[in-house]
Amino acid sequence: MKTTISLIKADIGSSPGHVTVYEPLMVKAEELMQEAKDENKIIDFIVFNAGDDTELLMTHQKGVDNEEIHKLAWDIFMQLGKEAREIGLYGAGQDLLKDAFSGNIKGMGPGCAEIEIEERPAEPILVFAMDKTEPGAFNYPIFQMFANPFNTAGLIIDPKLHDGFRFSVMDIYKNQFVDLKCPEEMYDLLALIGAPGQYVVKYVDSKDTNLGRAAAVSTDKLALIAGKYVGKDDPVAIVRSQSGFPAVGEIVEAFTLGHMVSGWMRGSHRGPLMPVSLDFSQCVRFDGPPRVVGLGFQLKNGQFKGGVDLFDDPSFDLTRARVNEIAEYIRRHGPFEPSRLPLSEMEYTTLPGVLKKLQDRFHD
Ligand code: F6R
Ligand code: MG
Ligand code: MG
Asked: pTM (2 decimals)?
């Protein structure tokens, strides 16, 4: 049977400021998802949060980009946004940029990652959600998982992984894709995805056509959709694991650097990405540091079994300690680059006003 996994997310309002989702609204989201499950619109679901983003993870048999599924998520977010406004939550309806649904949630504000798979007899699925950063923040860990043998031992020693994977990279400004094979075209791939503000890994596919899609990342660029800054893109990803895909341990290993990402305070700073458990899925210090949460399941006939909060483990303590140290170091730079992003990438700026004010005072 073919199963579709859809992970659709939006910031519908939070408390205090942009820190975390308001618990009663998570409960509300669960009730609304349960209704959809009772009406057989979806097979199963999980609601969780990444900082101030509400994440709706669901399974169904309707394929990717399905209008009914996207409308279900949209209607739930609209309902939550309305309640967030009434409660007085901060940034209520922040990511809901359109008034009326028009067939597909893409381009309307929420982020979306989807995979349709032929379920294997035992199908391990991992999902990841980040807050206070951009879709390109997944480039580094996805490369580590699927292309770097120093991270993923299976690329060298497991015959099922030894041929490598195919990456589909999106130029988010031109809305164009290029497919690159690894390891054959690894240097070309890195030439692109080393610039995560423009080139973003959208999909990874196995070269074994029986296995199919390995990973999908959301690439919705809120700033480009709205034509102005309306909040960071806060991406999500779905990753398949084991028996021809990287092992669970190889996948989570990709998050142990605490790699630098763009986002953090006012979407205008660089900071290290901290892997955290759901209990610490909130962004506090300098509105961060940027965080990632990860959940793992076995999927059976579209049902999520045996869920695990992947970063709720002491083996990530060292990464978290390093992230805190790097965060401390880079914060000391204050308004100077590289702590602050270069002018072209900042989401907030006073520069045009400052330049206008000073225009007559520049001299030779
Ligand atoms: C970044 C983020 C926060 C806000 C900051 C200012 O993605 O959500 O860092 O940018 O708290 O928020 P406003 O402009 O709403 O006061
Ligand atoms: Mg927010
Ligand atoms: Mg957010």
From this structure: 0.97
